[in-house]
Tetratricopeptide repeat protein
Amino acid sequence: MRFRVRLHNHIVAAVLPILLAMTAAALPAMADPSRLDSLFERLRASNDADARQIEREIWIEWSKSGSPAMDLLLQRGRDALEAGDTEGAIAHLTALVDHAPDFAEGWNARATAYYNAGLLGPSIHDIGRTLELNPRHFGALSGLAMIFEELKRPEKALEVYRKVLEIDPHAEGVPDAITRLTAEIQGQDL
């Protein structure tokens, strides 16, 4: 009997790490706050060429809800947006924010869908929720600045674009927008 117990213990000891690794690999991924902190530090210190890759890595982290079902809803919403099916995108992304109200990227994706549908009020609402959950979301801030421009509020747009650059000094197109808006506010044409 003792032999069996010892053999069983050895088998468990040998197999357990493999089972734990397999289980961990099967668990849904969630955004890792310490990885995000590191990515943002690297982003601020990077050059323009490296910044694009670091931004992509940040977006990948932001897209991890921790639930395969919620990740699927996010992907379906994004796919619908890419296919030009704004209504379908809004439906998928509404289901996502209903089921995962603390997942910032769901709100941000739906804000984009609303913007594409010309629904600026709902888009602004969802951007606000995104920023409550993730104040460093430079994508949501950029979208808000674009909306302020569309609403003919250049001072607010300029303020938000400057905030984007504080977070992501390499944000594509933002320095040009700041230059353009500064000239517009000062009454100059470029």
